[in-house]
Amino acid sequence: MNNSLHRGRFAARQVLDRCANALISAGGVGVILSVVMILVFLLHEVAPLLSAPSLTEQGTSAVPASDSTLLVAEDIGSVGLAFSESGEARFFDLSRDRALLTRSLLYADASVTAATRAALPWGAAALGTEAGELLLVRPEFETTVTQGRRELRPSVRPIVPLLQLAPAGDALLRVALTETDSELAVAAESASGRLYFASWQLDENGLAGSANRVLSLPPGEDPGSSGLLFVDARHRFLVRVTFQGNYTVHDLAPVNNAMPVPRLTSGSLFEAGEQLTAAAVLFGSASFVVASDRGALLQLSPTLQDSGELSLQTLRRFSVPGKAVHHLAADPGSRLFAAVFDDGAIGLFHSTSQRQGWATTGLATDEITASSISNGGGQLLLQDAQGGVTRFSIQAPHADVSARSLFAAVQYEGYRAPIFKWQPATAGATYEAKLSLSPLLWGTLKAAFFTMLFAIPLALSAAIFTGYFMASSMRRKVKPGIELMEAMPTVVLGFLAALWFAPWLDEHLAEALLACLLLPVAVAVSGVLWGLLGNVLRPYVVSGWEPLLLLPVFAGTAALAVFAADLLEQWYLGMSLKDYIYQRWGLDYAQRNALVVGVAMGLAVVPTVFSIAEDALYSVPKQLSDGSLALGASRWQTLRNVVLPTASPGIFSALMIGLGRAVGETMIVVMAAGNTPLMDSNLFSGMRTLSATIALEAPEVALGSSHYRVLIVAALLLFLLTFILNSAAELLRQRLRRRYRAL
Amino acid sequence: MAKKKRRNPFIPKGDPQSWFARGEPLLWFNASGVTLSLLLVGALLYLLTANGLAHFWPKPLYSLSVAATGTDGSENESEPTKRLYVERVRTEVSTHATGEQRSTLFRRGNRDRGDGEFVWVNDENVVSLSRPAELVRVLREAWGPAYGELQSLETPRGTVALSPDADQALYEALDRIDAVRSKMAALENGTIRKLNREAQRLYQRERAIGGDAPLAEELGKEQARLSAAFTGAQRDMLEMAQSIEPYWLTLRVDSGELWRLPLASVLAVQHPNSMSYVEKLESWALQLWAFLSTAPRESNTEGGVFPAIVGTVVMVLLMSVIVAPFGVLAAIYLHEYAKQDWKTRLIRIGVNNLAGVPSIVYGVFGLGFLVYVVGGELDKLFYSDALPSPTFGAPGLLWASITLALLTLPVVIVATEEGLARIPQSLRDGSLALGATRFETLWRIIVPIATPAMMTGVILAIARAAGEVAPLMLVGVVKLAPALPIDSHYPYLHLDQKFMHLGYHVFDVGFQSANIEAARPLVYATALLLVVLTIGLNLFAVLLRNHLREKYKAL
After folding, report:
1. Most exposed residue of A153, A364, A586, A732, measured as fewest CB within 10 angstroms of its CB?
2. Which residues of chain A from 73 to 102 reach within 8 Å of chain B, CB to CB?
3. CATH T-level fold of A447-689+732-739
4. pLDDT value at position B187?
5. pLDDT tier at B2, thresholds 50, 70, 90
């Protein structure tokens, strides 16, 4: 009986043991896996950036009639609007293949000869008539929910009454329309070749009163044959491109009644014989794209050069196979546009990132008469000659980001040359986000460089002395003292750096720099002096307590630096050192600069580097150094030839870990680096690092947006940078351990 | 010809036994590294302590006569000097081509008079500087301190003239007002808050019962009772507020004008120029206590940091509750259970690596995964009636704690493993040989011995978490939280709430407050508090570890 009880208890113990075994293993593996999740999560969030823009065909609808000249699509793409040649606005439901509403906007026998829409979500549309009149309307979709069903009630609202722009009978053959939050401008070319320009102020309802100004410009070459008219968002330039590729840029700014003819410049975009086939104004109306029958696809923008001359800047050429482009449609909500090629291929392009996506269709694309991308950028509508509309859905959530736009210089609208720029904030709805990680990466490396410049000499010399020379009674106090600094919250270091050290350095730059120069000299001199006087004094001082002897030397150096700085600034330079640096080298002095960051972050890194390097030096087997000393080598010789080579993997490992910390440190740079994304190597200018950017921008960024994902890329970069550094350090340390074991 | 011997360039020529030949001067450079490091550590701690503690010390007030200078720097004849009542802030020296210029920043206080709270005075323009005994500093709830001479006090029973020798009436009035104020605070925090909560519950019940008539009647009665109680409490509040309203303090400010201040907003009146050292010490201690125990005022630039202390402590404790079991579990698995092969070595490298991953990356993970993914799903499952306003789908205490727990996991794992490695294998072998199972060996032998090492790990984790700010900016810390994350109302610990944090307080007040000169001393004090907390915890952990090493040396 006793035995069975025993056996029962034994079984229970075994079960408990197995349970614990399973629990601990599961827990341990779980914890480790959860940590792997961080990397998985980062990769998962970055992955959508990699997918290229793509198109899928959704079906064809038979409405509207074939004579429409302009298509507009609603944001979810189910409602379309076509303006017909007779001046009707026809709304139709694409998914259900039926007409919704038809409204006549003009008089009985009117004929629309030109139509266009603003490159904005919910932008206005402009229609030009054969009689020289201009109609400005705004399509609207009112959403009503009746019995749980969402219904769209479309309508068209005139913005201004019908306007007789050209003389009666002079048909408007081409119109351009540019809309911003508060202004609207129209340019038109009549059959006689005259150019007309008119602009309005918009009220909060999007309606306009009487025109601000109306201009009429004399005809240019090939009157009436323009392939594109363009007015930029500031209403400064009017661009006309003919089908032969000849362009004129008019500067509208100085034009008034006294000086009715604007200055202009002209030129040619294409080779002789090459024909313009399609053109589209890009979102924000700062630039436009033109395409030729030989496959040229250019993004252009009118600008003033530094000399004040007008020019038409080619922002970029898209590389496309030399096929003729038949039609272009621009997204009214982003810088994405679709190019329909003669052979049935459709290409999606994003101007900022130069991302491309391709699809081939069985459509007779050379018969396309009108096209549109919906307001939300989700649908592409193509209308053929028979009036059928084919829908494609566009998947391009992150077309504005590419490896090139993240790391290479990008030609942005409004800039003369490609630049590196980080400026994701949207100043306006049409702002071209500048998401280049290069300046941030540069800032991170610059901060880390100056940090290590400050920390390496300090930490290593302290580690060498403490680990090898120092009297052990002193070491027991000094080592924890320096290591305690590791516990110092970096937010405190950042605060002191920015609000105490940076203003102080601003006032005492000369003193600080001179002290840095004088200190090594003073230490060398005191070493020599100690050597000369040593025979007298040395018996009184125990070896290994030298740091204390240096205290008066430091105080003396500081006093000397203050005195010398006075002398330098007042007598030699005759101005403050900051002014001198500016005049001599043109370097601006920002109060929160790389020097401040280097010192503050250096203080955060010194304890880490010191601690690991000191451990490595201290654990060099004593028999090695004892042997060297016994053979007659001096302390310094032993250090240089025996101790340092042995401990070198540990020292390198310390430097790697220190560098890793400097790369990822956040609060100090947020507070003390000024956070301007610059790309210079000036010691006296600030920077913006990856970590600071994440800390400052991630709390406010919209989930799932391109900006959010680019911030995750920044986090991934930081992760990988530190991962590489730390792995290298770990490998070095393992090598060190093997080396010590062998000794 | 004999081959020229390569000479070590670091060893000077000459007598190999001489001081220089032995390379001793080079050694001094290394010594200077130690000296400089220690000096920097000392300077940093001194700077923080001096500035942080000095803030509460009643600083002397000066009556300053300044030569009024025109815009061209020449002396203005018509108004030769101007008198200012000020407190000295700091002196700065700037170097110009003409020589050095010293100018001093003075605080004039009296922000609501609109004459500028701070003033820079060129030291050359200072005509005289004295410390009249009758100057007082009036600490107020809003608008910062007021400086002036006591003139008179209006009470409901009439006006009393005040002088440095006869100001007893003022202190009596202040005591009375203080008593009323604390009663008002008690009423607001106790009764009124309770009534608010009941009203909220009632509203929820009302929504839940729908059209049930008898229940609705009962609820109506309840509602009437509540609103009566609420009106009563509000009347009491109003009465108390009115009872301290007729007290006014009149000061004579530096321009000679008289200035009436409502005594209801006055916290304390100090005579820093005539206080004895003991009185100053008492005032210092009182202000320090007020700093630790009260809520911030004036958009965090004044008052205390009590909510930030509570926020930091609650978050850190919650974090340690999470990190301790998991960290220890992982360490035990790695050291006691897993087979020691390349896989465990890889995991160990991974864990060491994680200690070096920047904290902001953990913040991104916390925000992107914990808050948006996990929190979003929790909201959909359990709090769908509150949507679209998020409950756990927004940054908060729970996510901050988990994020920091992940961040400090390597600290606990490494410290615990170190402790486990110190336990001699013979103990395990002995236990197993006596027939104990693996779990019994672990539970009875290993864990008790390693407990202190685990504690060290947890304390180090707490110290690291307490000083960490960057990830918190993403996952739940705010500038000003409306309520504490822990209180006496169910469920007591509000995991979904945002909280205040000492480190973020330093960042926020130091960088985002409009009146940085006024806030600066407070930031120093907060920073000092944070440093004392983290360094104290670290020291404790180090001492604990050293103690244990001694204890188990014999094993």
Report:
1. A586
2. none
3. MetI-like fold (1.10.3720)
4. 86
5. very low
**Angstrom distance (rounded) from CA A630 to CA B194:** 81
CA distance A52 to B252: 74
DSSP one-letter string for A269-301: SS-TT--EEEEEE-TTSS-EEEEETTS-EEEEE
What pTM was estimated for this model as a whole? 0.88
Q: Is B532 in CB contact (< 8 Å) with chain A?
A: no
Domain boundaries, chain A: 54-422, 447-689+732-739
**Distance from B208 to chain A by nearest Cα, in Å?**
24
Q: Supply the ipTM of this predicted assembly.
A: 0.87
Q: Which residues of chain A have pLDDT under 50?
A: 1
Residue of chain A whose alpha carbon sits nearest to that of B441: A17
A723·B29 Cβ contact <8 A: no
Mean pLDDT confidence for B115-140: 86
Residues of A with Cβ-Cβ distance to B35 under 8 angstroms: 547-548, 550-551, 554
Question: Do the beta carbons of residue A699 and residue B474 sit within 8 Å?
Answer: yes
Q: Which residues of B touch A507 (CB under 8 A)?
A: 92-95
pLDDT at B96: 61
Answer yes or no: are the C-beta atoms of B528 and B52 closer than 8 Å: yes
Rounded mean pLDDT of chain B?
A: 83
Q: How confident is the model at residue B524 (pLDDT cuts 50, 70, 90)?
A: very high
Contact present, A413 and A432 (Cβ < 8 Å) = yes
Are residues A465 and B34, on separate chains, in Cβ contact within 8 Å? yes
Indicate the pLDDT class of residue B120, thresholds 50, 70 and 90: confident
Q: Is A695 on the interface with B (CB under 8 A)?
A: yes
- Which chain B residues are Cβ-neighbours of A481 within 8 angstroms? 38, 41
Q: Nearest Cα to A686, choosing from A672, A665, A667, A668?
A: A672
Per DSSP, the three-state class of B158 is: strand
A32–B contact, CB cutoff 8 A = yes
Lowest pLDDT segment from A629-638, B336-345, B380-389: B380-389
Shortest alpha-carbon distance between residue B205 and chain A (Å) = 28
Q: Is the Cβ of B463 closer than 8 Å to some Cβ of chain A?
A: yes
**A183-222 residue pLDDT tens:** 889 999 888 888 888 888 888 777 777 777 788 887 777 7
| Residues in Cβ contact with A377 at an 8 Å cutoff, skipping those fewer than 6 apart | A331, A332, A333, A334, A336, A394, A396
pLDDT attached to residue B503:
92
CB B358 to CB A484 under 8 A? no
Q: What H or E segment, with its residue span, contains residue B447?
A: helix B447-467
Asked if B448 and B376 touch (Cβ cutoff 8 Å), the reply is no
The two tokens of residue B406 are 């992940």
Asked if A636's CB is within 8 angstroms of B27's CB, the reply is yes
Confidence bin at B555 (pLDDT 50/70/90): low
Q: Do A712 and B361 touch (CB under 8 A)?
A: no
CATH 3.40.50.1820 matches A54-422: no
- pLDDT score at A683: 86
- CB proximity B28 to A under 8 Å: yes
| Chain A touched by B507 (CB under 8 Å) | yes
Task: List A344's β-bridge partners, or say none.
Answer: none
- A–B: how many Cβ contacts below 8 A? 333
Share of chain B above pLDDT 90, in %: 19
The partner residue sitting opposite A481, judged by closest CB among B41, B347, B352, is B41
